[in-house]
Amino acid sequence: MALARVAAGVLLAAIGCVLSVAADNPSTTSPQPFVWQKAHATFYGGADASDTMGGACGYGNLFSEGPGVTVTVTATNFCPPNDALPNDNGGSCNPLRPHFDMAQPAWEKIGVYRGGIIPVMYQRVPCVKRGGVRFRINGQVTDL
């Protein structure tokens, strides 16, 4: 059991290193910071955000903090393009159509539930990194 956790930790660390190197790759095209970009927003999960607790960052129950008037998104990863699909047929990650897949309560601050997808404007801003890398493994031992 301990060996499985160590192996999972090493695997996660290796994945983190690969993602870090990929993020530092100058050939990777990404929007310039501080420039407003066009995108689309969609949502997932239920109205109570029960399916989205913690998000990819492990912040915990963000929904219990109450609603706000501003939606701030912390992008933890980028969706890879799928050149086999046209931009208007499921290729939401293809160039010229970046999107944010948000928790439903956050999305409903800027859109109507029945709409399903809305145009948005966003800009990348610098993020000050604090501390080291953190890993959280949830679930049963059989999940590893």
TrEMBL record:
Domain Expansin-like EG45 span(s) in chain numbering: 43-132
Q: Which UniProt keywords apply?
A: Cell wall, Cell wall biogenesis/degradation, Secreted, Signal
Organism's domain of life? Eukaryota
Q: Which InterPro entries match?
A: Expan_Lol_pI (IPR007118), Expansin (IPR002963), Expansin/allergen_DPBB_dom (IPR007112), RlpA-like_DPBB (IPR009009), RlpA-like_sf (IPR036908)
Residue span of the signal peptide, if any? 1-23
Gene Ontology CC annotations of this record: extracellular region; membrane
SMART domains in the cross-refs: DPBB_1 (SM00837)
Which locations, inside or outside the cell, does it occupy?
A: Secreted, Cell wall; Membrane
| Annotated Gene3D superfamilies | RlpA-like domain
CDD domains annotated for this entry? DPBB_EXPA_N
- One BP term from GO: plant-type cell wall organization
Q: How does it sit in the membrane?
A: Peripheral membrane protein
The record ties this protein, via Pfam families, to: DPBB_1 (PF03330)
The record's annotation in PANTHER family points to: EXPANSIN-A15
UniProt record similarity statement: Belongs to the expansin family. Expansin A subfamily.
Role of this protein = Causes loosening and extension of plant cell walls by disrupting non-covalent bonding between cellulose microfibrils and matrix glucans. No enzymatic activity has been found.
What is this protein called in UniProt? Expansin
Q: Which organism is it from?
A: Triticum turgidum subsp. durum (Durum wheat)
Q: What is the lineage of its organism?
A: Eukaryota, Viridiplantae, Streptophyta, Embryophyta, Tracheophyta
